[in-house]
Amino acid sequence: MLALAISGLTMRFPGLDTPVLSIDRLHLPAGGRLAITGASGSGKSTLINAMTGLDTVTSGSVCWGGTDIAALAAGKRDAFRAANIGLVMQDFHLFPGLSAFENVVLPVRLSRRLKPAECERALHLLETTGIARPDQAIETLSRGEMQRVAVARALLSKPGVIVADEPTASLDRRTGSEVAELIVRLARDEGTTLIVVTHDPALMERLDRRVGLDGGRIVEDSSEVLAA
Amino acid sequence: MIRFILADLRRFKGGALAVIVLIALSVALSVTVTLQERAVRLGSARAAEKFDLVIGAAGSETQLALSAVFLQPSPLPLMSGSVLAKLSEDSRVEFAAPVGFGDSADGHPVVGTTSKLVSALSPTLAEGAMFARLGEAVIGADVRKPVGADIKPMHGGADEGGHTHTELIYTVSGRMAPTGTAWDRAILVPIRAVWQLHGMEGEAAHDHDHAAGGLATVAAAEHEHTEEREHEAHIDPAAAIDEHFGAETPGLPAVLVKPKTVADAYRLRQEYRGETTLAVFPAEVLTRLYATLGDARSLLLAIAIGTQVIVIAAILLVTIMHIGTRQKQIGALRAFGAPARAVVAIVSGELFLLFLAGFGLGILLGYAAAHLISASLTATTAVRMPVEFAREDISLAVWFGILAVVISIIPALSALRLSPARALRA
Questions:
Q1: Are residues B100 and B198 in the same domain?
Q2: Which of A21, A89, B84, B223 is the most exposed place for a label (fewest CB within 10 A)?
Q3: Chain A partners of B333 at a C-beta cutoff of 8 Å?
Q4: B10, B336, B340: residue with CB nearest A107
């Protein structure tokens, strides 16, 4: 379980005068469940990229349980993410030609030898996410099943936090709500912090806190409303 | 990782196959050129090895060497028989063997010579015995006739419209062991039988002028046809051969000389280079030809390497475009925790695998092509052309390997320049 502490974070893109993201302070305690919302272009994805280390931040700090990943070099950031952050994306980003099981263990396999315990955990996660045949080729799965495989992959390395970027946006309503339920349930069972970018009210409802973004700034924070 | 690479290659089957074929063809071209040039060079050098010094009438050195070594049918001028007589007496000469070309049988050249040359070519016969009578013949290893078979010599070649010598039928008395030279296709008969068939023996003294100026071919001999006929009846196949050559020896196209020492060889060549005779070291003539051949090889090799450069450029283009479309995949791999070295290994590994497959296939193709060409050359010339790899080929292969590694790593490194977030958006 990891706590997030963002302070003085700005992201600028070349050619743009105003920063696309500017967040003075955002704290999330370990085990917290946060929804990030906002219209498209509000900086949600930029915020996700900054907090997962997918992109280099212009200035400020992004601390996960004491590690400021904004200060790390790209390679170190990749390694930190691999070890601590479980990513689930809107487009799944699974690799065709491999089976469901192979997709789940691919990131680990590419960095080192798969341990027997990890192999067992992968099978267990696939079972939990409701994939009946782990050896089924990924391209023959339905979209809902693909996202379940992606969730299993995100959890394999027992990350301290799950970051999901619009995990239900490309799914139909029913499948979407099943996946939403699955993510929240697994985050609770696995004891991870959960951060989800979403427009899906059904998913938002299941989370403790909601932060709204507009023009790269936080314009709404449900926890502050409650505190006030 | 290998599973991932293979899964990826399966997805791009068509493109991967095209790249392999491109590389294979360009590598095959260089391999064939290199191997074939070496085969021709080694094969003909080995064929020339047995012939130290060839002496013939003044004319073309190249023609004399090619005729003696490869038994190439060509109109060689005749020189005086006294040259052979003189050489036979010379103390610097181990043996001097006359060679008389011009006749053929079933497409094989019939060469008149002496038993000494047969022994030099094949110290022990594969079967049968040396010719001892005028009507006997020793055949080369590649002549498909059994010992005891009849050979009807024909003046010139069948394709030149020559006529058959009815006055003498040779009987195969023995077969030489394979020599790997053009002489494997030859039928060797006593020189005196050839002379007698052509009406040159015995009247050499007064026939001298015409012999020296004549040609050992159909065209030259055709008009003497009627004259020859008169001699037909005199040939006795059972007559013992006489290999002592005196001053009355008839004219002949060439004499193969085995000098006793290297110094003798040079002295003899010096002595017989004159207005009426020509002395050549076939190996030296061939070396000159190889120089030309070598130039041709350099040119071909340059063309082959040129095509390789073009192919590699095309492959680079394909990979760079391929990387463009793969940015997303690479970004995803990194986003989900694959370390940079794994990404580099995957991208360059895929390319390297294609290079390797193309290279291996190309070597096989080139080797097979060189074998085919050599086989067809051997079928027509009987000169064994050894297709073999040599030590210097290793360095070529190493260079290719280094180039392949560099070229496959460049796109991989370029793929890592973008942050995973940007790569995912691509």
A1: yes
A2: B223
A3: 106-107, 110
A4: B336
Q: In terms of pLDDT, which residue wins out, B182 or A126?
A: A126
A104 touches A98 (CB < 8 A): no
CA angle B273, B278, B280 (to 5 degrees): 95
Dihedral sign for Cα atoms in the order B226, B228, B234, B236: negative
Q: What is the pLDDT of residues B74-109, one digit of tens each?
A: 778 888 888 888 888 888 888 888 888 878 888 888
- Picking from B338, B346, B422, the nearest residue to A107 by CB comes out as B338
For residues B363 and B384, what is the distance between their CA atoms, to the nearest angstrom? 22
Note the pLDDT tens digit of each residue in A50-81.
999 999 999 999 999 989 999 999 889 989 99
- How confident is residue A123, by pLDDT bands cut at 50, 70 and 90? very high
What's the pLDDT score for residue B159? 66
Examine the domain organization and report whether B121 and B79 are in the same domain: yes
Look up residue A119 and give its two tokens: 């192999």
B418 and B269 part of one domain: no
- Residue A205: closest CA among A226, A181, A170, A225: A181
Question: What pLDDT sits at residue B202?
Answer: 54
Whole-angstrom Cα distance, residue A155 to residue A139?
A: 21
Domains held by chain A: number: 1
pTM of the model: 0.68
Q: CA B26 to CA B100: how far, in whole Å?
A: 46
Same domain for B129 and B248, yes or no, is yes
Q: How far is B315 from chain A (nearest CA, A)?
A: 24
A97 touches chain B (CB under 8 A): yes
What confidence tier does B162 reach under pLDDT thresholds 50, 70, 90?
A: low
- Among chain B residues, CA nearest to A74: B419
Contact A192, A167 (CB under 8 A): no
Helices marked H in chain A: 44-52, 74-84, 100-111, 116-129, 143-155, 173-190, 201-205, 222-227
Take residue A224 and report the two structure tokens written for it: 């502050």
Note the pLDDT tens digit of each residue in A172-183.
989 998 999 999
